[in-house]
Amino acid sequence: MAGARRVLVVGGGIAGLTLAVALRRHGIDVDVAEIQPRWNVLGVGISLTGPTLRALKSIDLIDPCVAVSFGFDRIIFADATGREFDALRLPRLCGPDYPATVAIGRPALHDVLIRAAERLGVAVWLGTTASKLDQAGDAVEVTFSNGSRNSYDAVIGCDGAHSRVRNLVFGDPAARSFTGLAVWRATMPRSPDVECMQMFYGPHTKAGVNPHSRDEMFLFLVQPISSGDRLPPDRMHLLLLEQLGDFSGRVLEHARAHITDPAKVDYRPMDAFLLPPPWHRGHVAVIGDAAHTTTPHLATGAGIAIEDAVVLAEMLADGGPVPNIFERFVERRFARCRLVVETAVRLGEMEKDTSIPIQAHFDLMRSTFRKLAEPI
Ligand SMILES: Cc1cc2nc3c(=O)[nH]c(=O)nc-3n(C[C@H](O)[C@H](O)[C@H](O)COP(=O)(O)OP(=O)(O)OC[C@H]3O[C@@H](n4cnc5c(N)ncnc54)[C@H](O)[C@@H]3O)c2cc1C
Known about the structure:
Blueprint: E1 6-10, H1 14-25, E2 29-34, E3 45-48, H2 50-58, H3 62-67, E4 69-72, E5 74-79, E6 84-89, E7 101-105, H4 106-119, E8 123-126, E9 130-136, E10 139-144, E11 149-152, E12 154-157, H5 164-170, E13 177-189, E14 197-201, E15 206-211, E16 216-224, H6 236-243, H7 250-257, E17 265-274, E18 280-281, E19 284-286, E20 292-293, H8 301-318, H9 322-352, H10 358-372
Parallel strand pairs: 1-2, 1-12, 2-8, 5-14, 12-19
Antiparallel strand pairs: 3-7, 4-7, 5-6, 9-10, 10-11, 13-16, 13-17, 14-15, 15-16, 17-20, 18-19
Helix pairs in contact: 1-4, 1-8, 2-8, 8-9, 9-10
């Protein structure tokens, strides 16, 4: 018997929609409550690394993702002038027919996930959240923000870094740590010189480009900062161009020429967070960024959210009491998620400390990617 026949997923982001798809593939009924009244997915790209593609393959989503993304097998490391000095070869974990890694526009990934969820009969309620969760026996009575009520065998909070489900269930807002870093991103036409992710190490900051379709790429820049203050919205492009002042070379010259619109520049100070086990109380659990928020240094935050979803759906389908499944789930996931969060934070710390040789960054990245390639 299934451990849960009826599940509420709170949050229709990457974790929530992947979980909904994975649960439906196991024949479990799923409702998704998404707080935004309409989809509003940030128009930048994201990397899906080998282990992430492997998880997507297990729920038949790799082909539609690969079809709308840009695949590659290596990451190039260069200095601030664009001179390549190292490269990381990435293994094809999904077999010779699939790239080692892809970059994909977030809206394109969202389209793949929402279409699959709808095709499988998931009910997605926009503009709705769970306001109250009452656990009684083996059920969770949910009161929604529109006043309606419903009963579920399990409720999974996939509502991101500022998770309300986490706060409802665990009380105090969880301690998050400010990393002292911010990421800038901007989308632009792909330069013909950009066939894979490229990173440029400058004296104070790290910049990079990532092609997420044949036509487009995104630029990113990681900057040490002392406070998480907001910046003036009308000057975002100028501030990013200032940060790029340390860099030269064809690729970043191309990028610079396309940073003209402040509305197309995204800037965000970065927090990191890891919820200590348990990740559940009774029949309510959290996964994805709600349980572990990481910086993009390993391009794997969404990856571990997707893996959480695939593994949890599989375990719920295997059956047994829901709280026991949640307990075994966190036992299976915690070390891997901690590896990602702690290594990403460590890589950020290393970027701030210019006395650490760049080679040490690569060694840490290489050894971590090797560990993450192991089966989950
Ligand atoms: C700058 C940056 C770059 C990144 N690059 C990468 C990358 O290249 N590769 C990678 O793997 N990861 C990357 N990540 C990490 C990745 O974006 C996150 O790990 C991923 O989005 C987590 O997915 P999630 O579904 O858990 O949370 P979210 O994506 O935050 O989704 C949460 C969803 O829940 C909804 N929601 C929120 N509150 C409620 C509520 N109360 N009720 C109902 N719904 C609610 C939100 O509207 C949203 O739809 C990056 C992150 C950052 C900040």
